[in-house]
Each structure stands twice: as C-alpha cells, then as structure tokens.
Amino acid sequence: MFRLLAVAALVSLIALAACSEGDEAAPPATVPSPSEGQATIVPVTPAAKPEAVPEAARPVGQTATLGRIIRRANEAPQIVMPRELVESFCQEGLIVIETSEETIYAARSCDGFWDRDAQEAFSGQQVAIVLEVTEARFRVLIETLSGAQSEFTVAGIWVE
Q1: Residue 57 pLDDT more than 50?
Q2: Is 102 left (phi over 0), alpha (psi -120 to 50) or beta?
Q3: Which of 44, 95, 121, 138 is the S-S candidate for 106 at Cβ 3.0 to 4.6 Å?
Q4: pLDDT at 35
Q5: What pLDDT, in 10s, does the model give residues 72-113?
Q6: Which has the closest alpha carbon to 138: 118, 159, 122?
Q7: What is residue 39's predicted lDDT score, i.e. its pLDDT?
Q8: Residue 44: predicted pLDDT
Q9: 14-18, 44-48, 66-70 — which one is most confidently predicted on average?
Q10: CA 6 to CA 89: how far, in whole Å?
Q11: What is the torsion angle, in degrees rounded to the nearest 10, for the CA atoms of residue 71, residue 77, residue 80 and residue 85?
Q12: What is the C-alpha radius of gyration for the chain, rounded to an integer number of angstroms?
C-alpha cells in the first residue's frame, strides 16, 4: 500500500513539474504524504557562483550524465564514455572534481568530504558522474567501474 502511495505521489510530482515548466511564478508543488496528509516541496534555489569558480564554468540547470556504467547479472560491467578522475578536493566550501573531460565545481561545506581512503578509492579510476538538478535538490553522484559510489547534496553545480 505504501509503495502504491509513493508511486502515485511521484507521478503527481512529475506531472506538476511538467505543467509548471517555464512559469517562474508557479507555486510550489504539493504531494500527499501518508503520515501528514499534505507536504509542500519548496523549490531549491541554486547558490550564487563562488568567487573561486572560474568565469568559463557554466551553471548546470538540468540533470546531466557524464559517462554511464551498465551493470548486468553475470556480466562484467561496461562503461560508456568514461571519465578518469584526475583530482578532487574541497576547499573553502567548494568541491572541485577534475576529470579527463571536464572540471566540476559544487558549492558545499567541506565537512564529510572524502578522507584519504576515499580519495585513494576514486583517484585515477574510470568514473561515471550524475549531476542531478531537481526542484528538491542538487546532487553529485560519482561511481567507479569497480562499484565504489559517493554522493554529495550541494547548493549549486558549475562545469568547465
């Protein structure tokens, strides 16, 4: 029963988002919540571009997939348009992820960013990256061919 309600809520949210595209004055979408009756989703506004982000970097306004890893049972994973993770660090509220194809900048506190072990697990690896932009959040998801994953909810995303 809960799954049915969750699916109905998701479909309603997608329909409402499609109806309000391009209408900046549209009110926030409301989705029924099984426990509270109604919940309001407040659209997330991207953070201002930090000074450390280069002028040439452009804001990400919709979800983008940079490479893709296809996993099937009893088969080796396949990677399509991979990137090599060259370098990544977080400094003064800005995550910088440099790949062989582009550099990604994401506004976020450095608390909880990769420790030395995570750096080693991702650095030099072939990766696929999802830059998710939805009404509810901005998120960076990084996945390696070997199966390591890391995700960060961020305040804004720029790509150079």
Answers
A1: yes
A2: beta
A3: 95
A4: 54
A5: 999 999 999 999 999 999 999 999 999 999 999 999 999 989
A6: 159
A7: 58
A8: 75
A9: 66-70
A10: 37
A11: 110
A12: 18
**Dist CA 130 CA 98 (whole Å):** 14
Q: Are the C-beta atoms of residues 34 and 4 closer than 8 Å to each other?
A: no
CA angle, 56 as apex, 99 and 50 as ends, to 5°? 85
Summarize the confidence of residues 114-124 as an average pLDDT: 90
First to last CA, the chain: 45
Cβ atoms 138, 71 nearer than 8 A:
no
- Provide the β-strand partners of residue 130: 65, 141
* Token representation of residue 91: 């400094």
CA distance 73 to 76: 8
| Cα 104 to Cα 97: distance, rounded to the nearest angstrom | 5
Type and span of the H or E element at 17: helix 2-20
Tokens 């499609």: give the residue: 18
